[in-house]
Amino acid sequence: MTTAREIMHPGVQCVDEDANLVEAARMMRDLDVGSLPICGKDDRLHGIITDRDIVIRAVAGGLDLAATKVGEFGGHVHWVDASDSVAQVLRTMEDNQIRRVPVIDEHRLVGMVSEADLARHLPEHELALFVERVYA
């Protein structure tokens, strides 16, 4: 059985919930990613912020990017356990129509599974079904 830990991208970096949106955008640029997990002072996952959140909700909404905290964008976050099967990872992503999911081990963020990770590890027909379900 292949697990989330085996297909995830390890070494994911969090943005602090007290960072502002400009800092988050720069961090995304520097890391060449489209989303960042949001972590609190307790070093636990509090949410995810995407480049789309910044553009659609903040820029288009006329928010002051330097004054708006990342933590305001946290909300509910779906995640998988590091020992979950790839089938469970797929179910979580498909059921919630999300393109990336944090991987947790003993209450700590240890990685992220993205579409690119799935593309590297799934047979072509399973990947096609995933894309159809997430983008439907």
Describe this structure in words.
The structure is a single chain. The strands form 2 sheets. Strands 1-7-6-5 form a 4-stranded mixed sheet. The relative contact order is 0.21. The radius of gyration is 15 Å and the shape is globular. Helices cover 39% and strands 22% of the residues. The longest helix has 12 residues, at 124-135. It is α/β, with parallel strands linked by helices and 136 residues long. The protein contains 6 helices and 7 strands.
Q: How would you sum up this structure in a few lines?
A:
The protein has 136 residues and is an alpha/beta fold. The chain contains 6 helices and 7 strands, in the order H-E-E-H-E-E-H-E-H-E-E-H-H.
What is the strand and helix layout of this fold?
Elements: H1 4-7, E1 9-10, E2 15-16, H2 21-31, E3 35-39, E4 45-50, H3 51-59, E5 80-81, H4 86-95, E6 100-105, E7 108-114, H5 115-121, H6 124-135
Parallel strand pairs: 2-3, 5-6
Antiparallel strand pairs: 1-7, 3-4, 6-7
